[in-house]
Amino acid sequence: MNQRDVVFPAGRQALYERNHYSPAVRSQGFLFVSGQVGSREDGSPEPELEAQARLAFVNLNAILTAAGCTFDDVVDVTLFIVDPESTLDTLWKVLPEFWGEAPHPTLTGIGVTWLYGFHFEIKVIAKLPASPGE
Q1: CA-CA distances (angstroms) from residue 6 to 17, 34, 61, 97, 111?
Q2: Three-state DSSP state, 7
Q3: Each residue's pLDDT expressed in tens, for the chain with a length of 134 residues
Q4: Which of 38, 42, 57, 77 would bridge 46 by S-S if both were Cys, CB 3.0 to 4.6 A apart?
Q5: Which tens digits make up the pLDDT trace of 30-46?
Q6: Residue 113: CA count within 13 A, CB half-sphere
Q7: Domain extents for the chain?
Q8: H-helix or E-strand containing 34?
Q9: Are strands 5-7 and 30-37 parallel, antiparallel or unpaired?
Q10: Beta strand pairing call for 106-112 and 24-27
């Protein structure tokens, strides 16, 4: 089996190691990012929904940056939303701040009943920038 090429954002490696997963893995020119939530440095949820959504994107962007990417490199997004009927309007106020201009990535939204105390999770796949000479 090949060694996984794991990407860790600065300052959060212990959190991922404690929870036994990788924040992102590079493979075949793509970056596969684990679902990101609005967690504080200690892993606890940001209590307010709008702030939690922003923090999820901050956490996501830290991983993308560590891999040499931006949200513009994201090609596929999966959103997990607890109680989308009551939270979607708030989330759509925050998403455009981070989403950028069209064309946008593909999107799958999934309503869920529980996210370990969080209201929102975002999982993405990004195309890694080409290395010099590629």
Answers
A1: 12, 11, 16, 27, 29
A2: strand
A3: 568 899 989 887 777 778 788 899 999 999 999 999 999 988 889 999 999 999 999 999 999 999 999 999 999 999 999 999 999 999 999 999 999 889 999 999 999 999 999 999 999 999 999 875 55
A4: 38
A5: 999 999 999 998 888 99
A6: 0
A7: 5-127
A8: strand 30-37
A9: unpaired
A10: unpaired
Amino acid at 128: L
The Cα–Cα gap between 64 and 92 comes to: 21
Which position has the token pair 């309503």? 111
Q: Bridge-partner residues for 6, per DSSP?
A: 25
> 129: buried, middle or exposed (CB in 10 Å: 19+, 13-18, 0-12)?
middle
Q: Name the one residue in this structure whose structure tokens are 């924040």.
A: 23
Fold of 5-127: 60s Ribosomal Protein L30; Chain: A; (3.30.1330)
Coil vs helix vs strand at 31: strand
Instruction: Count how many residues are written for the chain.
Output: 134
CA 113 – CA 51 distance, rounded (Å): 20
